[in-house]
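Ticket opened by: R.M.
Priority: normal
Category: complex prediction / small molecule

The reporter submitted a protein together with magnesium ion and asked that the result be attached to this ticket for the collaborator who will pick it up next week. Submitted input follows.
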Amino acid sequence: MKKIALLGSTGSIGRQTLEVLANLGTDYKVVALTAGKNAEELEAQARKFKPAMVALHDYEAAQRLTEALADLNIRIESGDEGQVNASTWSDAELVVMAQVGFSGFLPLIAALKAGKTIALANKESLVVGGELLDRLGLLDRSRILPVDSEHSAVWQSMANAQKDEIARVYLTASGGPFFGYTREKLHEVTPEQALKHPNWQMGSKITIDSATMMNKGLEVIEAKWLFDLKLEQIEVVVHRQSIIHSMVEYIDGSIIAQLGSPDMRAPIQYALTYPERKTGLVERYNPFNSQLTFESPDRQNFPCLDLAYRAAETGGTMPAVLNGANEIAVENFLAGKITFIDIPAVIESVMTSHQTVKNYNLKDAVTADRWARQKAEEIITGCKGRMN
Ligand code: MG
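Result attached by the on-call engineer:
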């Protein structure tokens, strides 16, 4: 029986992970569940999966959960400590990290230090901390199993290849709901339109990131650290159908790709059952009479992609600043306070005013994240959403 700790269990990836686990049956046991503040849903999950511990980041929500679960023998924790304790839970053989944004950073470091094997869906933690973890010798790639669909595809397509046999990696991008839009048209798009992704069912933050192409930018940085690649080896290709989840080109010119229906339950399950494969819930892709197309990304109208490359080139605390500014810009766009094209403009001005700390430590990363959020808020308030 494989024992699983799941962080971020009430988000989109978290819910789908529990769906996959329920379908896999009794060979898998959930031992810890955590979420941000959704006490009601975590209670329902705890009643169904009977973990030994649950944690909510929000203190008051954790109080409510303690009362709600008083009839069960489940340990209930709160704050950063609760998340970290779940990610290092002694009984857990696999820690699934499905939190949204920067909140995944401290639990990831703790889990790596504790020697855990991690199924990683939280890309932001590697964006912020990849360089630091690598420098500290904590980035044990054999113990980080990617859940992000592109990275799962790269992982599967690399199989047991030697590093010097890899020429490059093509990360596929759907292009999001606004591919082909002009700048004028992008100016008018609403949060409702941006939240309608053509192919994937995902949470709101990542869906906006997909629409701006920041998601692909963050994934470039994630791929750099997960697979120890140079930035020049990572190419983004727009593939509207989201059937090829990514491709690896070898030095002899061969390209190996991984294909399947666009359904996050596929990469989630592969990380859970690895190194085995099991039948799952995902609808089979039917290759007959279908088309697969490839196009260049529109780097002019979707500048977030190049901002991410630029942050990765600069290194140090800059990727943390990119990420922090993006999280605030996305929040403000969803709240109707800035326009869609303000998102890259806010991030760029925050990055421009940042003094990068090279060879950063944990505290520098946390400070850079906080600074970037504050700076982004200042810029947004100062311009009252009239940046462009
Ligand atoms: Mg992805």
